[in-house]
Amino acid sequence: MVKTRLSPSFPVPAVTELYRCFLEDTVALARTLNSVELAIMCPETDVDELIRATNDAVPVVPQTGRGLEAGLNSVFAHFAGDIRTPKRVIAFNSDSPHLPASVLMAAFRALASFDLVVGPTHDGGYYLVGATATHPGLFAENTMGTTNALDSLLARARSLGLSVHLTSPFYDIDEPSDLQRLATELRHSPGMAPKTSAWLLASENKESKAAQNGGDE
């Protein structure tokens, strides 16, 4: 089950196909960055399906534990590695396939000077988080996906004595209004997320044809 808040507007199979487009566009976005190691982190039960969904284009790594907190912790444990040779690690989801690559590059640059980089969303969450090391206790499962997720993360960062840089606020796709906003933007700039743009255009054409047929009857 993905993007359940979109289900009232679309049948479940359509939402699943839309999310597949999000994922493909997000992978394509990440692959535009130079000298960056990529991987998809997910529950172990989803590994095989995601390998098929992405045509094995990116390594798919099973996370340790369940839930978003475990997923984020697994990202940094997987990539950060030995603290004697720190790496700049960015975790971001596939809910923002239209995210400009410049935002990701700016986030990587910020980690040269800050312990933590966070991309805030307009609804009180965050679309990316980056660090150069693992920080146990940084993420709280009970606030993931809530309107105070960002505040909770920043409070925990302060308690751990971490310096934080915020990237430009952005929006991810959770509600039908978010998707409508994205559709409007992609009409003008389909290259931001081509797979998603094509899906939305096909969906609009289907609705238009259905409405026309209904009017003819």
Please give a structural write-up.
With 217 residues, this protein is an alpha/beta fold. The protein has a single domain (4-210), classed as Spore Coat Polysaccharide Biosynthesis Protein SpsA, Chain A. Helices cover 45% and strands 11% of the residues. The protein contains 7 helices and 6 strands. It has helices at 12-30, 47-53, 67-80, 101-110, 149-159, 176-188, 194-216, and strands spanning 40-42, 60-62, 89-92, 116-120, 126-131, 164-166. Strands 3-5-4-6 form a 4-stranded mixed sheet, sandwiched between helices. It has a two-stranded parallel sheet with strand order 1-2. Strand 1 (40-42), helix 2 (47-53) and strand 2 form a beta-alpha-beta unit. Helix 1 (12-30) packs antiparallel against helix 7. The protein is globular, with a radius of gyration of 18 Å. The two termini are 36 Å apart.
What's the short story on this structure?
Helix content is 45%, strand content 11%.
CATH class: Alpha Beta
Q: What order do the SSEs take from the amino end to the carboxyl end, as H and E?
A: HEHEHEHEEHEHH
* Major sheet size, sense and barrel closure: 4 strands, mixed
CATH architecture annotation name = Alpha-Beta Complex
Number of structural units classed as domains: 1
Tell me what portion of residues adopts beta-strand conformation.
Answer: 5-15%
CATH fold assignment: Spore Coat Polysaccharide Biosynthesis Protein SpsA, Chain A
Shape: globular
Total strands? 6
